[in-house]
Sequence to fold (844 residues):
Amino acid sequence: MPSRYDLRLEPDLTTLTFRGQETVALEITETVSELLLNATELAVDSASLENDRGETIRASATMDEATERCRLALASPASRGRWRLRLAFRGTLNDKLRGFYRSVYKDPSGVTRTLAATQFEATDARRAFPCWDEPSFKAVFSVTLAIDPTLTAVSNTAVVGETLENGRKVVRFADTIVMSTYLVAFVVGELEATEPVLVGRTPLKIFCVPGKKRLARFGQEIAAASLAFFEDYYGMPYPGDKLDLLAIPDFAAGAMENLGAITFRETALLVDESAASHAELERVADVVAHENAHMWFGDLVTMTWWNGIWLNEAFATFMEMLAVDAWKPEWQRWTTFGVSRAAAMSLDGLHSTRPIEFPVTSPRDADAMFDVLTYEKGASVLRMLEQYLGAVVFREGVREYLRAHRFGNADTGDLWAALGRSAQQPIPAVMDGWIFRPGYPVLTVSRDPGGHLVLSQQRFNYLREPLPPAQAEPEQPWQVPVQLRLYTGTQTVEERVLLAEREARMRVGTGAEAIVANAGGHGFYRVRYAPDLLEALLTRVETLAPIERFNLVNDAWALTVAGLMPLTAYLDLTARFRGERDRNVWTVLIASFYSLNRVLEPGDRRRLAALVRDRVRPAFDALGWTPRAGEDELRRQLRGDLIRVLGVLGDDGEIQTRAAEVYRAHLTDPSAVDPNVLPAVIAVLAHVGDAARYDDFLRRFRAATTPQEEQRYLYALAGFRDPALIRGTLERTVNAEIRTQDAPFVARAMLMSPDAREIAWQFVKAQWDTMDRLYPKHGMRRLAEGVTGLPTPALEADVQHFFAEKKPQFGGKVLAQYLEQLHVAVMLRQREGDALSAYLSKFA
Ligand code: BES
Ligand code: ZN
Fold:
């Protein structure tokens, strides 16, 4: 049992190597002749054990790369008791954005610079130092970094000493709290920091590479606000001695919750508030709040094993919403969360889904757990539970859980126990079905001849026939907290029922003219209304809350894709939303139009564009091109979203022409155009752009002065339609022009675009091995998701053939999910293709 690591690392940014020494305090519980610990891509130069009784045992190290372990054969057996393990080792600063790695960027004068950073979750601490690299082996870490004196070093805790030894600056950091290996971090480079702000007694700073400090203000504000929010919500002070947030130019994930030294990709932390769109600001606020939430949920209390990662990620996602909602209530964060819930329901409607908690044995399976089921389904069911128990009772349970398990590990049962004590009711009966079983129900709502309300539940699946291997339908119904709203005359009443049976017949609502069966929109289930009830709702659709309208459209679309509602009925339904002004409701409408565009016969594209204009133009015309005085941020973002869909999918000539003018105005005066409109305009111009426009955007991508500007132009490069330009962008995903942190996402976007997908798919097939070699570890999984955008029978067959041959190892059920999603879209095409064509013939 390790209890303490004294760790000294000496990175060399010119040779791109590092040397390390460590002393691990161990409790040996029985006499042993060998020790096994994790290590990979490290050379162990020496190893020995010593104790306070003056005994020393030499050990010889052998690496086993297949199991990522180092075996220490002891020269003589070590008896029970306390020992110190001393190791010396070497490694390289790799370019795969994992373990101890290098990140390369240009400084303000254009000179290429290197920094070293770490990313350890889930199982990559073992790439930086030999360790017992599992979340339940918690220990204290005492880190020392010996670096070039011109550089800055950051680790989890405050600096407690700095000396000069043999021309190296030796920086010593305070002891950490007892924590898991995956949370250790060090960053070394030419870093600039903001002035600290004090939150309670915690100094909080933002670090970035030189020249970007002006982009740190917004991130620091939400960081301070959310840290204060969590200290209050959790009823417990921040567990570290300082908090640094660092923007790293090359970063595989979005951000990482290393205690006291949170690392981010630049787009998730640095932003120019005055030049950013609402969506770009929301992204920064979300990620910062999310990582801060982890300081308690994840860092102070950690899941026992990776099967329970939802305890980390679902909670951080849920808490992120609470904190951002408290910080900017006008952003209506819980309504926008509907988009995340919808993404989870989309994956969870597959036969190849998995329960939130799911067995993990290999590192690959651990990586595969970081998906929308862990994050978004997890957060959704927590929200459902919070609403069911009441916010105060829920918070008390959370506090109790943190108090009971701080500095330790916990699992789902521990959470239920704490919540159960607070709620004075057993939690597992209600919750286990949502956590330990795959999928979710669709509630059918109808009335029997006696006027009684009939609610019945079945598992929702997009495909009737399960793909082999066949999966049996779960026996047990879910316990569904159902919030009903009943409209009778001018009266509305709300009723709460827990639907625990397959079917329930209720007296409530007799005589009601309309019924909302997921009032407030928190439920993780779909609703299928009988036709008369649906019609009754649609006639008073403006009385529904935005999240309820969102769910209405989202469920209707899902039922359509699943073959439970005719496509023509769905398309008619979209016509009733021309007056819609909520940005999230538009998000789901627009997404469905994009999905249709992917399954359409090419000859019908023009007609779909006309349908899109018919549906969207009235809303846009009401908004106009320029914000009115006093307009809120969401309205401005909606304007951008509508311009984008009209100019791209709607192929609206007027929008396209005007976009070019607006863009010219922006170039002469950057403040002339609303920041929510500009990203849309750039996307529209790419869609209609020629080679000259491409070269201009490429130049602006390279010269961008904010991470957001760089992203806009980068993704614009994926939106050009000329085959030569499509090939140009694809080339850039493998020739180092696009950072490997971004390249998989750019290629994925091109696979999802009907204009680029055939060329992109040929390219990806040909370059698969190269990409696999270049991209960071989640890269291929992200890229491969793009095959869900290839829904023609011929392409589907080719995809299946390709993967059968390549056998990519994404871990978990990832590949099966992509293939099933693809098949769902192909089935939609087969089933509804003719009806769609006929419907569109009305749109010349
Ligand atoms: N713990 C994760 C980072 C991570 C993700 C590590 C995957 C290893 C594998 C972090 O807290 C996180 O969830 N980051 C998100 C952003 C967040 C706002 C959803 C990410 O990286 O996308
Ligand atoms: Zn997280």
